[in-house]
Amino acid sequence: MIKLVLTGVWVCAITLASVYFSVHMATAPAPAPDDSKQSQLELVKGETITVPIIADGAVTGYFLGKVSFMMNKDTVKNLSLPLTEMTTDELFTLLVGNKMVDISNMKSFDAIAFREVIKKDINQHLGGDYIDQVMLEQLDYLSKEEVKANASGQQKKTVKPVNVVAPAPVSDKAATE
Q1: What pTM does this model have?
Q2: Which is nearest to 140 in space by CA: 104, 103, 175?
Q3: For 42-51, what is each residue's pLDDT tens digit?
């Protein structure tokens, strides 16, 4: 009979302890969210654009570019400006107006300075600190002759476009977080 009573007390003690532990864990304050800068950013993918290069009154070639951005998640929700069109305008200004890329000397191209100018100018147009990082996914140059040969279907030797910036894959990890 004593064994039966001790077994009952033991079962009650274990049950009370497990209920207390469960309630305590359920009402415990949630751990602080990860405040890292990366978790607050969202990937905004850009579109591929073509920028004609004009020299001596004629088109000499084309830049093919794709630029994406890492932006603050909270500010992206409230943003109503056309980011794609602003990016296109900025790339036209930098590649045609300011001529930041010298076709004759590709080694002199400074990708970091190019990214910073895009970031600074677009943030200035948006009126705040919206863009955290600029990612150059593609920036290639095709001469006018190469485009004509491809368009006419001529079987000339295949010439690869000049990579101003080597294409780097952008992971969708930041977009899914």
Answers
A1: 0.58
A2: 103
A3: 887 878 888 7
